[in-house]
Amino acid sequence: MVIHYRPWMVVVALGVGALACSTSATAPTPIDDWGGDFAFSFVDPVGDTLPAQSGEAGAALDVVRLEGTMTASTFTFRLVFATPISAWSTGRDDRLDGFVDFDIDASTTTGSPSAVDLFGGSAAMGTDLFLLLRDDFTGAIPLVSTRNGGSVLVNAVFADSVLIVSIPRSFFGNDDGEMSVAAVIHRADRKATDFLPNMDHFDIRRP
Fold this sequence. Notes:
Strand content: 35-45%
Shape: globular
Oligomer: single chain
Mean pLDDT: 83
């Protein structure tokens, strides 16, 4: 039975719990069997933000690029925005909120619906893990399992218009490092302001 966890409900640090999804119980692929480190980069159009809803007045946060690297030990990615962003804990108007969803087994029948779908888009993927982009006031954000709500905190850096996140690959379990990803971006005074990508999802694969 799959439990669909999608807490806007996850407001503060959930890192006290264990990331107990089934994929995290095994060790990552040994380095000797690792297919090799690789980089990835995807572009999202500038100015493709969603219209403000009734009562929303703030400018949209517009994500324009997803890029990063996958190594035998660490998954690092950067979300690049068209304008400056800040951590939720700063209290600024441009503070970042939202979800980055990962489908690590390439199956739409496992995991939960993407947050993109829940906010009116269509990601066409099953979410096994997701990042909640609200930080916990210490420079970390929670990575949450959709199977049971278990979570761990991962490092996040908010640098001008870029969010940089590093995740130990062991958190993805015995996985080959290839996965699908989609995101929905929020800001303090608005709900969804941008989908990444606009439709469907990005596939992180070796070249």
